[in-house]
Each structure stands twice: as C-alpha cells, then as structure tokens.
Amino acid sequence: MRFAVRRTVFYLFTAWAAITINFFLPRMMKGDPVSAYLQKNQGRISPEAADSLRTLFGLDDGKGLLQQYADYWGLLLRGDLGRSFSKGLAPVTDVIATALPWTVGLVGIATVLSFFLGTGLGSWIGWRRGSRADALVPVATFFSTVPYFWMGLIAIAVFSTTLGWFPASHAYDKGSSPALTLDFVGQVIQHGTLPALTIVLASLGGWILGMRNMMVTVLDEDYVTVAEAKGLSPRRVMVNYAARNAVLPQLSSFALSLGFIVGGTLVMELVFSYPGVGKLLLDATTAKDYPLMQGLFLVITLTVLVANILADVAYAVLDPRTRQTEG
C-alpha cells in the first residue's frame, strides 16, 4: 500500500507540473495565437471577434494570470482543449482524435511487435551465447544504425516503385473514405505494412542487443545455477528464471517507447505521408497553431506518464523487491 501511495503521489505531482508548464509555455512565447491568427486574416476579423477569440483562449487582458490558470484547469477538466486556428477553429480534441488512431494503430503495433520479437530473440541468443546465433546481433544492429528516413526511402524504392508490392504513401487509397468495411481495412493494412516493417527493422537491433547482454549477466547468477542443479528443463530455466529477471531493465525502455507512440514517428509519417500525430504536430508548428500544439504536448506528456505507471506496475509484479524497497 505504501508503494502504491508513494508512486501515486509522485505521478500526480508530475502530471500537475507538466500541465502547468504546458499552460505557461505558450504565454512565454513572443506574441499570442490570436495575434498570429489575425495577421493571417487581416480585414476579415472584426475587433469584437478578436476580443471574443482572446476570451475563448484565456488571453483576456481583463483577467490576471492566476485567473487564466484557474480557467484553464476548468476547461481541461471538462475535456476542452480549445480550438485549432489551422483547422478552421475546430475543437482541438476533435482534431487530435482524427489523427490519434492512425499513429497508435501503426506505430503502436510496430513498437509492441518489435519489443516482443527483439526480447524473444535476445533471450534465445543470450541463452545460446557463443554459438552461431550471435551472428544475428550485428545484422540487427546494422539496421538500427541506418538513418530512418534513408531506410524508408529504400523501402519505397524497392518494395513500392520496383516490385509494386505496397503503396508508397498515405494511409488508404485516394478517393476512399474511412469506413468499417473489409475493403477499407484491407487498404489500411496494405498501406501500413511498409512503414510498420520499417519501424520494426529500425528498432529491433536495440531490443535484441539489450536483452542478449542482460541474459549473459543473469545467467551467471546463483539462482540460475540452483535451478539448473534441480534438474529443471532448459526451457523453464531460460523463461522462468533467466529471462524473467533479464527483462526488467527492458521494461523501462519499453514504457518510454509506448509513451512516445502518441508523439508518432515524425520522420516515418513525413516519408510515407501518413496522417498521424507526428505530422499533425509539424503542421501545427509550421502554422503557429498554439492551441493545437498545446493540446498535442499535453496528450503526449500524459501518455508518457501512463506508460511509466504501467512499467512500475509490471516491475512490482515481476520483482517483489521493488515494492518492498519502495515501501
């Protein structure tokens, strides 16, 4: 219970700090989003409308900073993140909701697949250390060192332009509309396969190398030797004793990877013209759409926090020493 309370307090404080920084950061920048919007629409926005926009975004000169901060929390608790200037004053929550499923579906599946595949291979290679299986490590590491945009361009040139196996860009065929049909789902899978494989290849080497090195370290521990002396099967010793403890450091990296899924792989989304959160963030930055940037930063930050909470829970379940020490 003490472990749970300590971690809850820590993450609540971290969430408050992140939200507070997210509130003050745009207000520390030169100008404000309403002024930037008015410059692009000179002569089309009346002074009364401009005042209404400032009131809507909590930039009313008649309110103090603390009052604006309180109003921001009130809007936030109601799920109101403001309105996007670059998307026709559409609610920020609606704009993010349209891009979030694409990023989570593509980058999320690719990251999870890469983690489990890399961890499994790393466990097997570490268990068979010194054998020919070690040859997989430099091969996988090589793909991890290749610049991501370069790997994406090579994949497009080979598998799309030359072989014609996969589309080169976008999340579905042009002229199609999102719908829950077999045809549209097939288009999404076909368009997402190439960028997903690129993400897996780019990140697989790190998971394999990290797990392999941890397995080599863990295999020298006394509890592994005792398990082998008991006559347990090699598979059970590898999975239940060695891999279970070797995977613990991997969980922290995996939690961070899950958190940054929402941020999207910006380079991937640019190379493949994929309509995800990363591309949306770049468009918002280019357009100086501060409300949308603020909403995206908030969603990304909270996602990282949730991912770290899940990592703490996994640590406590897999290693009882963690909760005993924290308690």
Description:
This protein is mainly alpha-helical and 327 residues long. Helix content is 74%, strand content 1%. Strands 1-2 form a two-stranded antiparallel ribbon. It is flat and about 80 Å long.
Number of strands: 2
The oligomeric state is single chain
The poorly predicted ranges are none
The mean pLDDT is 78
Beta content comes to under 5%
Secondary structure: elements and pairs:
Elements: H1 2-28, H2 33-40, H3 47-56, H4 65-77, E1 83-84, E2 90-91, H5 92-127, H6 136-145, H7 148-162, H8 182-218, H9 222-229, H10 234-246, H11 248-259, H12 266-271, H13 277-286, H14 290-318, H15 320-326
Antiparallel strand pairs: 1-2
Helix pairs in contact: 1-14, 1-15, 5-8, 5-11, 5-14, 6-8, 7-8, 8-10, 9-10, 11-14, 13-14, 14-15
Summarize the structure in short:
The chain is 74% helix and 1% strand.
Q: Which characteristics define this entry?
A:
about 325 residues, mainly alpha
